[in-house]
Known about the structure:
Blueprint: H1 16-28, H2 32-49, H3 59-70, H4 86-90, H5 109-120, H6 125-146, H7 153-163
Amino acid sequence: MEYVKKEKRLRMPEYGRIVQNMVDHAKQLPDRAERNAAIQTIIDVMGNINPTLRDNRDYKHKLWDHLHLIADFQLDIDCPFEIPSMDYFRGKPDRVPYPVSKIRFRHYGKIAELLIEKAILIEDEEKKFEFTRQIANHMKISYLTWNKDNVTDELILIALRELSRERLSLPTGTVLADVKDLPPKSVVTRKKFPQKQNHTFKKRY
């Protein structure tokens, strides 16, 4: 068996040396139709080796791109997709801008602020009141998620007025949902492992 370090460096190790050897063999086939048939078989094998690509809508395109990379872009075949260049793989992906926005009360989150802006625009007073009450209940849940202590309805109503800059409010004495009726807050629990047990072994003769 030839020592591994003497073998050709794999372009894509996740497909293994077998696929690399298959591609190298297909490159040497003199007949174009025979090369096309061999490459199609290799594509099927690559799809079975890397099934996670099937979660992508363009997984077939990705398989063919990987194929050309394994072949060092030296395949003379009929490809159903545009043949990429090495610069395509070397290029860095576009930077995704991270949304940066100031949140007045982080424990209520940005969603509460967005909901408040929506509620302010509602013209129907009855719908506006009900929507505002639902926002207050949401704020109560958010508060309990980050604070272990119970929260009073009055505290939530004050925070609602502050977040809306006095443009949105509920009447004093409005009763929000009871704590026990609200969804339970998520609590991170540590996995318990069984305690080690001391075993005694008897010698057998």
